[in-house]
Design goal:
Elements: H1 3-9, H2 49-61, E1 66-70, H3 73-81, E2 89-93, H4 98-107, E3 113-117, H5 122-128, E4 135-139, H6 151-160, E5 164-168, H7 173-176, E6 186-190, E7 204-208, H8 211-224, H9 230-240, H10 243-262, E8 267-271, H11 281-287, E9 294-299, H12 303-308, E10 314-315, E11 325-327, H13 339-344, E12 351-355, H14 361-374
Parallel strand pairs: 2-3, 2-4, 4-5, 5-6, 10-11
Antiparallel strand pairs: 1-7, 6-7, 8-9, 9-12, 11-12
Bound molecules: pyridoxal-5'-phosphate (PLP).
Pyridoxal-5'-phosphate binds near residues 97, 168, 170, 171 and 190.
């Protein structure tokens, strides 16, 4: 089955006695042993049939053997990072999701050595991975600068050191990028974003091929209790069915808006992996099936007026939903980062990030043009 069919059909065994064409929402916390032959369900902190259906779906969608789902992307990250022991070293890309940055910083308290490196620079990546390392963590494209990291190249270096490679695949979604194909060991998703796609449910996932790794994730989840509810699993499973059509539309509109921004008054730079001038363009063209629907740009006008000047773009954090969003990382998502660190990384006050939804492209273009003019 091809991707657009898999997102609709995966994990959807028809419910025997009733013939319902969608998986039922199981809300039971506990299961009667003698009513099952053989007994497979025990307690919902470990497993639940609605959760299991979603896991089969997301594993198949990403072309992997296993998937474990979680109550949020952060919950999935917490479980993945729980593999690290005191004295071990984690190498993480520098432009990383704010929540991940806080989690890995917290690991230092437990004696884990943490190095943040620009892994989109092949020389810096090689130098960082020349020493002992237990885990390499990367996002590509990164947030909000949309830097592109070569998953295959980093995985080769990491595996030579025996390190595990975790790719946060939230920005690309399984529709555009499948990290395990490029040698990564684990693909992480905040399913809150593109996978569920409607900004109405939190969720996370860890996708992998190795059964022992999967077992470690589900064992940790059972103990940590960071499981999603049956209702949440149903919503994510319902959302993923339209992933293919949503992303197709979102990418097409993003490309139109990139063209608009390149010529727009006040826009001094457009960051988008689909542009031939983007430093990661070549890797992106190989690694991603399309350049995505997140656009960052630098704006010479008044950013606050631009944010307030849009009608259709909600000024909000998060991304990947059906509704278009606009945000200023320096004021919003990346505000907790110390100013000098943020600015040195290129996340300056004039940087604006768009997440393109599925609205009519002409309406979005008109709205953006009005707002860009309002800020000048
Ligand atoms: C949102 C996000 C997360 C965290 O996911 P939550 O579902 O909000 O916990 C992790 N990584 C990236 C890239 C994200 O955008």
């Amino acid at each position: 089955m091809r991707f657009a069919t898999r997102v609709v059909h995966s994990g959807h065994e028809v419910d025997g006695p009733h013939g319902s064409v969608v998986p039922p929402i199981h809300v039971a916390t506990t299961y009667d042993r003698f009513a099952q032959d053989p007994p497979t369900h025990f307690y919902s902190r470990g497993e639940n049939p609605t959760m299991a259906a979603l896991e089969r779906c997301l594993a198949e969608v990403e072309g992997a053997a296993h998937c474990a789902v979680f109550s949020s992307g952060q919950a999935a990250a917490t479980t993945a990072l729980s593999l690290l022991s005191p004295g071990q070293r984690l190498v993480c890309c520098d432009d990383v999701y704010g929540g991940t940055h806080a989690l890995i910083t917290g690991l230092r308290r437990f004696g884990v050595l943490v190095d943040q490196v620009d892994l989109s620079d092949q020389d810096l990546a090689a130098a960082a991975l020349a020493d002992d390392v237990a885990m390499v963590w990367l996002e590509t494209p990164t947030n909000p600068l949309l830097k592109v990291i070569d998953i295959a190249a980093v995985s080769r270096l990491a595996h030579a050191r025996g390190a595990l490679v975790v790719v946060d695949n939230t920005f690309a979604s399984p529709a555009l990028q499948q990290p395990l194909r490029w040698g990564a060991d684990v693909s992480l998703h905040s399913t809150t974003k593109f996978v569920a796609g409607h900004s109405d449910v939190l969720g996370g996932a860890l996708v992998c091929d190795d059964p022992a790794l999967h077992r470690a994730f589900t064992d940790h989840r059972t103990l940590a209790g960071n499981v999603p509810s049956g209702m949440d699993c149903f919503l994510v499973h319902r959302g993923v069915k339209t992933l293919s059509v949503r992303v197709e539309r979102q990418v097409r509109t993003a490309q139109t808006l990139v063209d608009l921004l390149l010529d727009a008054p006040g826009v001094t730079e457009v960051l988008y992996p689909g542009l031939p001038t983007h430093p990661g363009h070549e890797i992106a063209a190989r690694q991603l099936s399309a350049p995505g629907s997140i656009i960052s740009f630098r704006y010479a006008g008044q950013v606050e007026k631009l944010l307030a000047g849009t009608d259709l773009f909600a000024c909000a954090v998060s991304l990947g939903g059906v509704r278009s969003l606009i945000e200023c990382p320096a004021l919003m998502t990346h505000r907790p980062i110390p100013v000098e660190v943020r600015v040195a990384a290129g996340i300056t006050d004039d940087l604006v990030r768009l997440s393109i939804g599925i609205e009519d492209p002409t309406d979005l273009a008109d709205d953006l043009t009005t707002a860009l003019t309002a800020g000048l």
